[in-house]
Amino acid sequence: MEDLDGFLLWAVFISLAIISLAILGAFVRLIRGPSLPDRVIAIDLVAYLTMGFLATYSVLIQEETYIDVALVLGLLAFLGTVAFARYIERIHAEEETTEL
Amino acid sequence: MTETIAALLLLGGAAFMMVATIGALRLPDFYTRMHAITKAGTLGIGLILVGIAVFFGDLSATTRAVAVIAFVLFTAPVSAHMIGRAGYLDEVPLWQGTLVDKLRARYDDLFDKGDQPPARRASSPSASDG
Question: Where are the domains of chain A?
Answer without folding.
Answer: 6-99
